[in-house]
Design brief:
- By secondary structure, the protein is α/β, with parallel strands linked by helices.
- The protein folds into two domains: 191 residues, no CATH class; 155 residues, Glutaredoxin.
- It starts with a helix and ends with a helix.
- The N terminus is likely disordered.
Length: 429
């Protein structure tokens, strides 16, 4: 479990995108790269090694996590050391792509290669620009520059009609707002593609698009794209099956929710129906979020099976101890999952038995030293009103119950504390 936690929190892996171009031929003296199958086995072996090495580690200190991440990076570097990425076929590249972000050397090499290829005014050049941006997500400045290239690319409009749309819009939704505002015309042009004839892949990316458009385009234009996309999704959903149907349903929920409507930040907190509210000492301090008016509220959406969520507990505990309970409430928001993935004992199946899951959650909280309140809501932890696609996910409410910030990670301690301090100072006036 912990090896996966380390990889999940430290390395973001962009989805494979075929370059749609033949890579340059290797020099005659160069050694041929292993086959795609052989490279895939390397990746499997690396994951097996890391899981075996770290599976039994529990509650590591920040220093221990740093050492483990350095070890992961070193092993990934060694796994990919003999490869010349400029000579790999699409199949070979796809085989190793899951661990490229784990290897600083490989990541830098591929990023430099893709930035050079992004100069091509073709779909292959656009694919390279998308991959370069995906590999630049650790640095806001570098990501902003990569997004500038992506949004000004000659093949952007054509690429958004195909399979590149999903990854491109996901990356753009992470770009700094100031960088996006410079490209309002290009962003508006992408919005025109959300119509009844749009491919399903683009329609299900409406969530990411609205994340890009909100704050960049006038609200009336964003609302118009949302309405068109929702109409197209509703129509397509009726006949969709399998994975497409599930993705369309998720997009429906988002577009109809507060985040999709652009009514989250600055608005009253969306409904959270708390069926179970408890602290590890067995007390139930309140019944409704509305009871907390007058306090700053930090909502930390999580689940017991989520490694990064549990891995962030020390940060949450530090935050809890740093502020008085009458000024700040921290709530670990989750929903019934059907199982409790204990860290210090075997997981327990609770499917269909809410009381059993609540009892197991109490045990989990005591085992893990949870010092803040935990609430189980009727709404799914992947709450569509908040636009949650991954957890942990932190939202902050002011003393009036209005949403101030969303989408933070517990590791973003400085930003979270700065927001809390500003709200407390404002409330003290």
């Amino acid at each position: 479990m912990l090896a996966i936690t380390i990889l999940s929190t430290a390395f973001a892996v962009p989805a494979p995108i075929a370059m749609q171009a033949t890579p340059p031929a290797a020099p005659a003296a160069a050694k041929a790269a292993p086959s795609a199958e052989a490279l895939q086995q390397r990746v499997v072996k690396l994951y097996e090694t890391l899981n075996e090495k770290y599976a039994k580690v529990s509650n590591p200190t920040p220093e221990e996590i740093q050492k483990m991440q350095a070890d992961v990076a070193a092993q990934a570097d060694a796994t990919l050391a003999d490869l010349d990425f400029a000579t790999l076929s699409d199949a070979q590249y796809a085989a190793v792509e899951p661990i490229i972000m784990m290897s600083p050397k490989a990541s830098d090499a591929v990023k430099a290669l893709r930035k050079a290829q992004a100069g091509q005014p073709t779909l292959a050049g656009l694919a390279a620009a998308i991959q370069a941006a995906g590999l630049s997500m650790r640095s806001p400045e570098e990501l902003a520059a990569s997004c500038d290239v992506l949004l000004s690319h000659p093949a952007l409009a054509e690429g958004m009609k195909g399979e590149m749309a999903t990854m491109a819009l996901e990356i753009l939704s992470q770009c700094p707002a100031e960088s996006l505002k410079k490209h309002a015309a290009a962003i508006e042009k992408i919005g025109e593609l959300f119509n009844a004839d749009a491919p399903t892949g683009l329609l299900v990316s409406a969530e990411s698009y609205l994340g890009v458009a909100n704050g960049t385009l006038p609200k009336d234009k964003v609302d118009a794209v949302r309405a068109k996309a929702l109409n197209a999704i509703d129509s397509r959903y009726a006949s969709a099956t399998g994975r497409d149907r599930k993705m369309l349903e998720r997009a429906q929920k988002y577009l109809k929710g507060a985040a999709g409507r652009g009514e989250l930040i600055g608005f009253t907190c969306p409904p959270l129906t708390c069926d179970w509210v408890m602290r590890a000492d067995g007390t139930s301090p309140w019944k409704s979020i509305a009871d907390l008016k007058g306090k700053v509220v930090v909502l930390d959406f999580w689940a017991t099976w989520c490694g990064p969520c549990v891995g962030s507990f020390p940060k949450v505990a530090e935050m809890r101890s740093a502020y008085p309970a009458d000024k700040l409430e921290i709530i670990g928001v989750t929903s019934l999952q059907g199982t409790v993935a204990h860290q210090k004992r075997d997981p327990v199946d609770c499917q269909g038995d809410a009381a059993k899951e609540h009892a197991e959650l109490m045990t989990f909280m005591k085992d893990m030293g949870v010092t803040w309140t935990v609430a189980v809501t009727k709404e799914d932890v992947f709450n569509s009103d908040f636009g949650i696609r991954g957890i942990p996910f932190i939202a902050i409410l002011d003393q009036d119950g209005k949403v101030v910030k969303v989408g933070l990670h517990p590791e973003s301690e400085d930003e979270i504390r700065k927001t809390i301090d500003e709200l407390l100072a404002k409330g003290a006036k």
